[in-house]
Design a protein that fits this description.
Layout (H helix, E strand, L loop, with lengths): L2 H4 L6 E6 L5 H10 L3 E4 H9 L2 H11 L11 H9 L2 H25 L10 E4 L14 E6 L2 H10 L5 H5 L5 H7 L2 E4 L4 H15 L2
Parallel strand pairs: 1-3, 1-4, 2-3, 4-5
Length: 204
């Protein structure tokens, strides 16, 4: 999935990322309202894990407890691999190529749209950590004050924010690597305004 191939028809191909609680999902929805085609890699992972093939593969590698009711339990998978580097590496190597293939297929579907979207944006939480950033024409990092992130994560039931964040690059590093950085400490209207400015400059 090369950036040059993705941009062949002039639709900017954009990777969106951010730490837990930074607001990247809100940013993705805002970009869709602004005329971008959007895809969540987390949603793609859900689709993959819902297949019988993935269930069988995960049960073979991680044990029957990952699918106690015949369907993959993502929380059970997370518990099993969180403190197991080998298991986590296996899971990432299993999922990421499949996610990448789904993104390529989605990207090709956009060619037939009329009118064409202003951009094709994919939300990838581990965009830089997974090595996927080079596939995109541009990247956007959504960042927020640490206290704001903790409040948002807590409201959504994300416990142990520090432990989960330890697997990710710091916000500063994400911002340093990204083409564009959006500080999301204000209202949704302010977030959308900032993203609108980025979209307006993508094709230039």
């Amino acid at each position: 999935m090369a950036a040059g191939d993705a941009a062949r028809d002039g639709i900017p191909f954009v990777g969106l990322t951010g730490g837990i609680g930074a607001g990247k999902s809100e940013a993705l929805r805002a970009l869709e309202r602004l005329g971008a085609a959007t895809l969540s890699s987390d949603a793609v992972v859900h689709e993959i894990l819902a297949t019988d093939e993935a269930r069988d593969d995960l049960m073979e590698r991680l044990g029957d407890e990952v699918a106690p009711a015949g369907r993959v339990d993502r929380d059970a998978v997370a518990r099993l691999v969180f403190d197991d580097p080998d298991g986590r590496r296996w899971l990432e190597e299993y999922l990421w190529p499949r996610v990448g293939s789904r993104i390529v297929a989605w990207r090709s579907e956009l060619d037939s749209l009329d009118p064409r979207p202003r951009a094709a944006v994919v939300e990838v939480p581990l965009l830089f950590e997974s090595g996927m950033a080079d596939a995109f024409d541009a990247t956007i990092a959504v960042v927020a004050d640490e206290a704001v992130r903790a409040d948002r994560a807590g409201a959504r039931g994300h416990a142990a924010l520090d432990e989960r964040s330890a697997r990710q690059l710091s916000q500063d590093e994400k911002a340093r690597r990204a083409t564009h950085t959006v500080v999301n400490d204000g209202s949704l209207e302010e977030l959308e305004e900032k993203l609108s400015g980025i979209l307006a400059n993508l094709g230039r």
